Amino acid sequence: MHQPIEMMEIGGIAIFAAYNLVLFFQIGNRHYLYLGLLCLVILVRATLVDDGSMVFYHFFPSASLTLGRKIEFFCSYAGVPLTLLFIHKLYTIEAFKKWVNVFLVISGFFLLFVLVTPYRIFFHTLNTYNVIILLSYILAFAMLFRAVQRDLTGSMYVFSGTALCFLFVMAELLKTSGVISVDVGPNLVNTGFVIFLFFQTLALSEIFAKSFRENQELNKDLEKRVDEKTIELMRASKLRDTLIRIVSHDIRGPLGNLKSVISLTRDGDLTIEQTKEFLATIDTGVDHTIQMLDELMEWGRAASSNQKISQDKIIIKEVLDQIIAQAKPAIDRKTLSLSIEGDLGAKCVFDKNALKVVLRNLMSNAIKFTEKGGSISVNLMQKNGEAIVRYSDTGIGIPDEMKASLFEMKKDNKRPGTENEKSSGVGLFICKDLVTQNGGIIQVFDNPDKKGSVFEVTMRAE
Fold first, then answer.
1. Angle at 16 between CA 14 and CA 18, to 5 degrees
2. What does the radius of gyration of the chain's CA atoms come to, in whole angstroms?
3. pLDDT of 313-353, one tens digit each?
4. Residue that terminates a domain, selected from 188, 211, 234
5. Is the pLDDT of residue 255 over 60?
6. What residues contact 60, with CB distance under 8 A and at least 6 apart?
7. How far apart are CA 34 and CA 82, in angstroms?
């Protein structure tokens, strides 16, 4: 009756030993190694005990009983350090490391003693080692109790399995020491260990389930990061292509003109008056190019994936005052009237350098496309958590066919000003990009009262 049950127990332990050793070689976590080795020593011991199946001698009929006893004691004593190493490596509780090392040294001494002495001598160490087994369970319970307190994955299952296994081991010790004489079954250590392994299976299931969930979350996070990086790469590619196109087309012009004037002057083909006229044209072109480079550099700074937008709460009029001071010569030259109206204390949340680029571009366009004697007004508003800057001019307006793609990078968006001022065609594209990055909106309307255009930028105010 007992032997079939014992063979089932041995088979279960053998399967679990192979399972954990395979996990160790595939994953590399050492607690799988220690649990696999623990299964192996319990398995070997189960084939050698007197009240068991004694299958060891069926496989090795020439083995002596003395050798069998030596292997049995060695396996029994090896269970202590392997159990402690398994629990310690499973939950890595450093506070108990020195105590685990103490038991490793003590167990190592007993194992060596079993190997080098005959049975009649090492047999007398059994009662002493039973005390060590009891003390090792105290240490194991202390480590597991700490793991349960920390709510480590599967710790309650390991604790429960260890507690039940302890009860069976205690019954076996009491039986072999003669304290109890009742037949409580064969090889109780095997039964207790099978129960222990069952609870380890539950713990592993919980650990694997948690790892699976974490891997799913990690995959989602990686997919999100890949999408973000893809967007950044596309943006960087767009930035590169745009810069190359602008530089190759708009910056070469003034440089080409300068090269021509230098060549003509060197060859003596230009009069002083002609040279001055050409230099004035080149000077205007260089100013235009410098301004465009400033805008492109600011856009490149904001568009770069390595540069983060730095948003601050800004008083809009303070930035406008700086821009108006820079634009005053152009305003005076075209005798334009300029007014700033509305809430002069209005604030927005925006990157300060980007805001300068946006407002400067809109001011430059208003001046460029307004005829002499015209007017420009800037209206500031702050309401419902938003700040609004509205540029209105009495200029030449925007053709209907341009409005749909006004904020895009297109050659058709380039047109000269009222006094033939040059246009790069990239200013409004840059404005739209910077406003969008800062969480705002830029729109264009026809001036409802008179000819001209209205540009409106809506930004966060808080």
1. 70
2. 43
3. 999 999 999 888 888 888 888 899 999 999 999 999 998 88
4. 211
5. yes
6. none
7. 6
Same domain, 58 and 192: yes
In this structure, are residues 460 and 349 in contact, taking their beta carbons and an 8 Å threshold?
yes
User: What separation in angstroms does the CA of 363 have from each of 168, 325, 326, 430, 446?
Assistant: 88, 11, 10, 14, 17
d(CA 190, CA 192): 5
Cβ–Cβ < 8 Å for 188, 168? yes
Q: Which of 390, 406, 389, 407 is nearest to 459 (CA)?
A: 389
Range of the domain at 419: 309-462
Token code pair at residue 306: 């390595």
* Count of structural domains within the chain: 2
Q: Are 177 and 133 in contact (CB under 8 A)?
A: no
Task: Tell me the pLDDT of the chain averaged across its residues.
Answer: 81
pTM of the model: 0.51
Q: Which of 80, 117, 74, 79 is nearest to 102 (CA)?
A: 80
With a CB cutoff of 8 Å and minimum separation 6, the contacts of 438 are 309, 311, 349, 350, 351, 354, 355, 459, 460
Of 172, 189, 211, which residue sits at a domain end? 211
The CA distance from 415 to 422, in Å, is 7
Is 274 part of a structural domain of the chain? no
List pLDDT tens digits, range 373-385: 899 999 999 998 9
Q: How many CB atoms lie within 10 A of CB 245?
A: 13
Task: Give the sheet arrangement for strand 453-460, strand by strand.
Answer: 337-342, 375-383, 386-393, 453-460, 441-446
* Three-state secondary structure of 46-83: HCCCCCCCCCHHHHCCCCCHHHHHHHHHHHHHHHHHHH
41 found inside a domain: yes
H-helix or E-strand spanning residue 356 = helix 352-368
Instruction: Report the amino acid identity of residue 285.
Output: G
Contacts of the segment 307-314: beta carbons below 8 A, 24+ positions apart: 309/351, 309/354, 309/437, 309/438, 310/351, 310/352, 311/349, 311/350, 311/351, 311/438, 312/349, 312/350, 312/351, 312/352, 313/347, 313/348, 313/349, 313/462, 314/347, 314/348, 314/349, 314/350, 314/352, 314/355
Phi, psi of 413 (to 5 degrees): -80, -5
